[in-house]
């Protein structure tokens, strides 16, 4: 398990002196990097170049004169027009850049943008759900990065700053996370933090002591690598994905069809299909390459990408639901895929981007899955988490304490009835399903939004019902199918109670400041009063006390 | 047959106003009669001899089936409305609905982001309103239709106050 390596030790924090020098006073309005409009607009520039360049190139190839007759007469107009267009474009870029400003102060990030229609956005730092640093290839060449963060607040969720120097982006991320976590006081919450000694910082290294804590930038939280996905396994997983299966089937079908009907036309359809597929595979590979997961007090860090790199930070307790899935072709290798629901990820941007960002682990073996689960769910609330999760991923019937579909309803799910089931721990609900496409969904109790019991006429005949848990938008849709009526009704009641308890326990969005109400008694006998529920380190609670008080 | 099989036992359900049946009837009339009329058009054309293609049996069957389904749903409406119920518990709001496809939903007060009141034209005429609850999840499709306007306003205030008291993050 994760109980080895550097994970369990108290994190050694770089002191304030080790933090990168930063001259940014609090609350000053700043602009993004001047080169960013060109990095962002390079597609337009490239399109123009290609458009004119191709014409020129073709003429040269065809042996025609590069310049037509009468070109000399029109040249001044053409040049002048081109210059005007270019000047207007550049001016537009520069003005957009000039009018885009951002500020971090008082518990908020504010971004003002727009030339004709001004846009002001502000985002509450303690509602930050995730921070990504994205580096497209061109930005990477120039050492720039885009900072993108999701905020669970009213209205549109994503706030983007493109582009910053990579060091600035990292620094800003550290600042935002430090304030979001409550490690560094913000102006609005100064009094609270003064009263709360634990707000003094990670591990008590005291970078927040004294009056200079506003001026000094937050150091980047230390991080410890958890796992990497080797490229060979990534390629293997792509080759054995469901997509590949359908490609092979489709390919065979078209070859057979063309042989039978003596019609070569089928091959022509294959060419664009193959191109599209190659692009799809390349996209997966490019995004999943060198996938690295690490843990820091700021949360889970995910890094990946071959040409375009991305670094995601998921603060503790922001993950709403986890799905661990295993397609049939992966089973011989023992590979699993993990996806998460994070508020904001499901709704923002285009679908492809949302897909990559919700992947917690593109492909990994069982120990990797356990390691990631221990980050997502630091306190699984059971004695032997390995056994229970193993039963959830590969078990049958009542292995690991799962309650399955009753035998009387086996006609409704002839293959999967021995798999479909649930197990409730003190902190999360595990929902297991699927015989061929195995799935295990984990929903922390304190993340359940609402839930519903559903029953159709057929299910009523067999005295079973479905339980649907509602979480934020994303790839995970937790649904317990065909559970016995008595069991599921009991679960419905218990789950309401458990979610209520869990909500009471979690009192603050600022994860380094969470306190347990004194009246609340925890099920774990050795629970400290200051409860580090959200500090992900390992499945055992014991090491964390040292970290909190050390 | 009054089935309350999946409901938690011992809940005193509050029912919605019987006037909501009228709202549902109007909705039903608009949706189903229009569909039946459109589907009957080929029958008319065939009878008039303008069209040759759909054989007479098909032209008769399609709108007839549609009409039967519509009538079946019409018969169900009063029972469906009577099946809608809600209960304010200490920490969550329970909403139930459906006869054949039953659904019982629990929305914790602490999870509610905001509460809407919507009033359609027919509802306004009858003095009714619909209360909608929103959480951070798009799957929470919690609405209580057919409340008298005063009751709706009371419920909204009540829910907002309870939500405020128990507000948790996401």
Explain what the structure shows.
- The complex is a heterodimer of chains A (550) and B (170).
- With 550 residues, chain A is α+β, with helices and mostly antiparallel strands.
- Among the domains of chain A are: 39-98, no CATH class; 230-288; 315-505, PH-domain like, CATH 2.30.29.30.
- Chain A has 15 helices and 21 strands.
- In chain A, the strands form 4 sheets. A 7-stranded antiparallel beta sheet of chain A has the order 7-6-5-11-10-9-8, sandwiched between helices. Chain A has a 7-stranded antiparallel beta sheet with strand order 14-13-12-18-17-16-15, sandwiched between helices.
- The radius of gyration of chain A is 27 Å and the shape is globular.
- The relative contact order of chain A is 0.10.
- The model of chain B has no long low-confidence stretch (mean pLDDT 87).
- Chain B is of the alpha+beta class.
- Chain B has helices at residues 20-48, 56-83, 121-126, 149-165, and strands at 14-15, 85-88, 92-97, 102-108, 114-118, 128-134, 142-148.
- Chain B folds into 2 domains: 20-80; 84-165, PH-domain like (Roll).
- At the A-B interface, strand 19, strand 20 and helix 14 of A face strand 4 of B.
- Strand 19 of chain A pairs antiparallel with strand 4 of chain B, so a sheet runs across the interface.
Count the domains of chain B: 2
Beta fraction of the residues of chain B? Answer: 15-25%
Question: At the fourth CATH level, what is the homologous superfamily of the domain at 315-505 in chain A?
Answer: Pleckstrin-homology domain (PH domain)/Phosphotyrosine-binding domain (PTB)
**Any idea what the CATH architecture of the largest domain in chain B is?**
Roll
**CATH topology call of the domain at 315-505 in chain A:** PH-domain like
The number of helical segments of chain B is 4
Summarize the structure.
The complex is a heterodimer of chains A (550) and B (170). By secondary structure, chain A is an alpha+beta fold.
């Amino acid at each position: 398990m994760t109980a080895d390596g550097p994970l369990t030790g108290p994190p050694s924090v770089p002191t304030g002196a080790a933090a990168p020098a930063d001259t940014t006073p609090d609350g000053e309005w700043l602009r993004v990097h001047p080169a960013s409009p060109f990095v962002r607009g390079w597609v337009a520039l490239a399109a123009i170049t290609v458009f004119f360049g191709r014409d020129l190139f073709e003429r040269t190839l065809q042996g025609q004169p590069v310049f037509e007759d009468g070109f000399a007469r029109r040249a001044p107009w053409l040049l002048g027009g081109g210059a005007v267009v270019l000047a207007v474009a550049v001016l537009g870029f520069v003005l957009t850049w000039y009018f885009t400003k951002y500020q971090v102060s008082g518990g908020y990030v504010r971004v003002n943008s727009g030339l004709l229609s001004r846009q002001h956005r502000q985002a509450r730092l303690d509602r930050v759900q995730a921070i990504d640093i994205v580096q497209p290839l061109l930005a990477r060449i120039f050492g720039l990065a885009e900072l993108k963060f999701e905020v669970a607040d009213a209205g549109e969720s994503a706030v983007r700053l493109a582009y910053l120097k990579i060091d600035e982006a990292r620094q800003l991320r550290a600042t935002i996370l430090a304030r979001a976590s409550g490690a560094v006081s913000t102006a609005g919450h100064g009094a609270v933090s003064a009263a709360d000694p634990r707000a003094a910082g990670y591990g008590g290294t005291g970078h927040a002591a004294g009056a200079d804590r506003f001026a000094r930038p937050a150091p980047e939280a230390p991080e410890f690598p958890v796992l990497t996905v080797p490229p060979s396994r990534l390629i293997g997983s792509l080759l054995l994905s469901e997509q590949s299966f359908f490609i092979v089937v489709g390919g065979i079908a078209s070859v057979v069809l063309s042989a039978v009907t003596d019609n070569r036309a089928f091959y022509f359809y294959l060419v664009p299909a193959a191109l599209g597929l190659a692009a799809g595979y390349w996209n997966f590979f490019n995004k999943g390459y060198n996938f690295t997961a690490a843990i820091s007090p700021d949360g889970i860090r995910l890094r990946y990408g071959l040409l375009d790199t991305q670094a995601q930070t998921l603060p503790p307790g922001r993950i709403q639901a986890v799905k661990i899935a295993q397609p049939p072709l992966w089973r011989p290798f023992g590979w699993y895929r993990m996806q998460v629901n994070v508020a904001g990820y499901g709704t923002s941007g285009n679908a492809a981007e949302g897909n990559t960002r919700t992947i917690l682990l593109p492909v990994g073996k069982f120990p990797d899955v356990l390691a990631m689960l221990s980050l997502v769910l630091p306190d699984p609330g059971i004695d032997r988490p390995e056994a229970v999760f193993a039963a959830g991923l590969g078990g049958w019937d009542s292995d690991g304490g799962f309650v399955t579909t009753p035998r009387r309803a086996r006609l409704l799910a002839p293959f999967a009835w021995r798999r479909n089931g649930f197990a409730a721990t003190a902190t999360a609900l595990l929902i297991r399903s699927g015989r061929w496409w195995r799935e295990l969904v984990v929903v922390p109790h304190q993340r359940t939004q609402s839930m519903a019991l559903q029953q159709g006429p057929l299910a009523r005949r067999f005295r079973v019902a479905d339980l649907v848990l509602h979480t934020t938008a994303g790839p995970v849709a937790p649904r317990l199918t065909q559970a016995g009526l008595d069991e599921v009704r009991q679960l419905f009641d218990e789950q309401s109670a458990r979610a209520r308890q869990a909500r009471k326990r979690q009192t603050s969005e600022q994860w380094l400041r969470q306190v347990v109400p004194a009246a609340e008694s925890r099920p774990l006998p050795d629970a400290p009063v200051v409860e580090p529920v959200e500090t992900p380190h390992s499945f055992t609670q014991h090491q964390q006390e040292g970290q909190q008080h050390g | 047959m009054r089935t309350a099989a999946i409901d938690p036992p011992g809940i005193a359900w509050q029912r919605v106003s019987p006037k909501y049946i009228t709202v549902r009837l109007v909705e039903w009339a608009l949706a189903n009669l229009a569909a039946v009329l459109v589907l009957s058009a080929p029958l008319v054309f065939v009878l008039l001899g303008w069209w040759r293609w759909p054989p007479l049996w098909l032209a008769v069957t399609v709108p007839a089936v549609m009409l039967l389904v519509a009538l079946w749903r019409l018969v169900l409406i009063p029972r469906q409305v009577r099946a809608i119920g809600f209960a304010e518990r200490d920490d969550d709001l329970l909403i139930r609905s459906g006869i054949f496809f039953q659904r019982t939903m629990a929305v914790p007060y602490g999870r509610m982001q905001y509460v809407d009141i919507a009033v359609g034209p027919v509802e306004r005429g009858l003095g009714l309103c619909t209360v909608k609850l929103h959480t951070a999840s798009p799957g929470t499709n919690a609405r209580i239709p057919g409340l008298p306007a005063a009751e709706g306003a009371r419920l909204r205030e009540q829910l907002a106050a309870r939500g405020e008291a128990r507000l948790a993050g996401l």
